[in-house]
């Protein structure tokens, strides 16, 4: 078997360097996020009270309608504001709580963390930013689907618009928000048009053959580069 050439050694070294950079960035992002969550939990102990109606839910004394969750290994909590409890009806509150708890149950924070680290490691790569934005939208849509099990579309839409409108007004007053990698579901003043269109005009789910095609395409995207990399060596044997 011939010894690898300069081009092969350079490509292999570059791949190893990028892999090490990605892993290191992921570890740094995870450490930073865990510290942010720990500090936020300390503030919540001082500024919030346990909800009388919902388990693992804290209520902060704030006029703006706010709902988000703080993920953790064993201390995940949902945070609601007094303004949200006063401005939303009981059904709307139930939809919001179901939305936030789906973030915790499905561990959407891990997806955000991974794609945030990818974007930080390769900020010059357009797909890193596009991937992060797409994942943020997708997890909100997944949470919406879970909330629709507890409320109808009109109720969920009203709750989303109420929270998003208040967040937009708060952004204009230059109030900073926490990192989305640390706090999932934190309002950022923007609700994507795709998300609203999906709630206003729901489409039929993919058929079983279509889902199988998507799954097969995903597997091929992961397997084909590896096969193309080792195939020439296998043929030489």
TrEMBL record:
Gene3D superfamilies on file: Metalloproteases ('zincins'), catalytic domain
InterPro entries cross-referenced by the UniProt entry: Beta-lactam_resp_regulator, Peptidase_M56
Recorded superkingdom: Bacteria
Keyword Transmembrane: yes
Keywords per UniProt: Membrane, Transmembrane, Transmembrane helix
Transmembrane segments: 6-31, 212-231
UniProt domain Peptidase M56: residue ranges: 11-155
Keyword Ligase on entry: no
CDD domains: M56_BlaR1_MecR1_like
PANTHER family: POSSIBLE SENSOR-TRANSDUCER PROTEIN BLAR, SLR0241 PROTEIN
Name this polypeptide is given: Peptidase M56 domain-containing protein
Lineage: Bacteria, Bacillati, Actinomycetota, Actinomycetes, Micrococcales
């Amino acid at each position: 078997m011939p010894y690898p050439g300069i081009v092969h050694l350079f490509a292999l070294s570059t791949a190893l360097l990028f892999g090490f950079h990605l892993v290191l960035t992921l570890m740094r992002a995870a450490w930073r996020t865990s510290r942010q969550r720990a500090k936020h939990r300390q503030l919540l102990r001082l500024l919030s009270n346990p909800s009388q109606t919902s388990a693992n839910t804290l209520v902060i004394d704030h006029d703006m309608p706010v709902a988000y969750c703080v993920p953790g290994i064993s201390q995940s909590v949902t945070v609601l504001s007094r303004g949200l409890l006063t401005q939303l009806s009981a059904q709307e509150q139930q939809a919001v709580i179901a939305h936030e708890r789906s973030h915790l149950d499905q561990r959407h924070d891990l997806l955000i963390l991974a794609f945030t680290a990818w974007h930080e490691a390769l900020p010059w790569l357009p797909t890193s930013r596009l991937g992060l934005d797409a994942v943020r939208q997708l997890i909100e849509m997944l949470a919406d689907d879970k909330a629709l099990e507890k409320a109808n579309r009109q109720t969920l839409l009203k709750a989303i618009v109420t929270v998003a409108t208040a967040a937009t007004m708060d952004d204009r007053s230059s109030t900073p928000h926490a990192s989305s990698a640390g706090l999932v579901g934190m309002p950022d003043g923007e609700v994507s048009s795709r998300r609203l269109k999906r709630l206003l005009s729901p489409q039929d789910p993919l058929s079983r053959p279509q889902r199988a095609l998507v799954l097969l395409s995903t597997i091929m995207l992961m397997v084909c580069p590896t096969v193309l990399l080792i195939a020439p060596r296998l043929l030489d044997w």
